[in-house]
Amino acid sequence: MRVGRAAGITDPGRRRLRNEDAFICEPPLFAVADGMGGARAGEIAAGLAAAALEEAGSETRGEEGVVALITEANRRIWERSLSDPQTAGMGTTTTAALVDAATGTVGIGHVGDSRAYLLRGGELEQLTTDHSLVAELVQSGVLTPEEAERHPQRSAITRALGTESTVEVDAFTVQSEPGDLFLICSDGLSSMITADEMRGAIEQADRDPARAGEALVEAANAHGGEDNVTVVLFEMVGPPVDTADGPVDASLDTAVRTATSPDEDTLEHVPVAVAVATAEEEDGAAPRDEAEAVNEGEDEDEDEDEDEASASQRRHGAGAGGRIAALTLIAAAVAVGLVVLYLATTR
Ligand code: CA
């Protein structure tokens, strides 16, 4: 299992001058951070979180790895806010996904209200639970999910990165399947459009991460664009592999598609190598009949020619038939000559 196509996109939206969101789209790591704070503090907090996450080494794995990364990011933002009064109180959300190719698992950790979703089959499932005021009110039964979507305090978060010396990170692991499409986004998307609208936009873009990302930002802006919008999408492809992190040969993708698309209706979508293999099978089947048909009308000399001929030549019986005609003509001419000679000698 490995990461297929991936894309990240961020947009200031229609109401904000600045963009305080940041994202990472560097397989196997994907993340979105949504900063908050006065002046440029929000940008600084989100930027620090992204920078800390980007330092993940190749040995960083699983949800424990994601928690370690986010915890380190928290420490850096907190320390910066202590040393730089202008950034006091700054914070950021962070939702990060780390893919482990060897096990086909995706470790996800998050703090705040940036969300992770999974599109599997036709269903878009929200994987994370917001650390927000309205989410807590929904959980305690005070608000309905519909009321939460319109609540004036819906962007108030109850947990953030960098506002305290320590942070509690929610983390879990998803066992991925081929075709899974993961979506991480800031609330500038999820507060503007519903999950159903997200799914529709992604399907409309044929699940292409780059096109889907643009479509989602467009949709958020069309619904008001009240906040910065950030979207990161990545797909999982291929069967589980034994090798850990090394890039997997592109032929793996070919193998999967061959196995799942054996019928001729899908031939135009399968790699050239597969189409050629199929064509060779057809070549092998059709000429056999032609060769047998040709052999029925031929003598042994022609059979030797047949054995030496290439496949493409064997497909055509006309050449051998022409030679037969020529031999017949020569035989006839010789016969006529013999008759003439006999008549001449018997006069
Ligand atoms: Ca936001």
Structure description:
The protein is α+β, with helices and mostly antiparallel strands and 347 residues long. It has two domains: 2-241, PPM-type phosphatase domain (Phosphatase 2c, domain 1), CATH 3.60.40.10; 275-346, no CATH class. The protein has helices at residues 41-54, 62-83, 133-139, 145-150, 187-190, 195-204, 209-222, 251-260, 272-296, 300-308, 311-314, 318-346, and strands spanning 2-11, 21-26, 29-36, 91-92, 94-100, 105-111, 115-120, 123-126, 170-175, 181-185, 229-237. The strands form two sheets. Strands 2, 3, 4, 5, 6 and 9 form a six-stranded antiparallel sheet that branches. Strands 1-11-10-7-8 form a five-stranded antiparallel sheet. Strand 2 and strand 3 (29-36) form a beta hairpin. Helix 1 (41-54) runs antiparallel to helix 2 (62-83) and helix 6 (195-204) packs across helix 7 (209-222). It is elongated, with a radius of gyration of 34 Å. It starts with a strand and ends with a helix. It binds calcium ion. Residues 34, 186-188, 227-228 line the site of calcium ion.
Structural class: alpha+beta
As a percent range, the share of strand residues is: 15-25%
User: What Rg do the Cα atoms give?
Assistant: 34 Å
List ligands, each type once: calcium ion
CATH architecture of the largest domain: 4-Layer Sandwich
Mean pLDDT: 80
CATH uppermost class of the largest domain: Alpha Beta
Helix-strand string? EEEHHEEEEEHHEEHHHEHHHHH
Low-confidence stretches: 246-319
Number of helices: 12
CATH topology of the largest domain: Phosphatase 2c, domain 1
When the domains are counted, the total is 2
Major β-sheet profile: 6 strands, antiparallel
Number of strands: 11
CATH superfamily annotation of the largest domain:
PPM-type phosphatase domain
Classify the helix fraction into a percent range.
40-55%
The end-to-end span amounts to 95 Å
Q: How would the global form be characterised? A: elongated
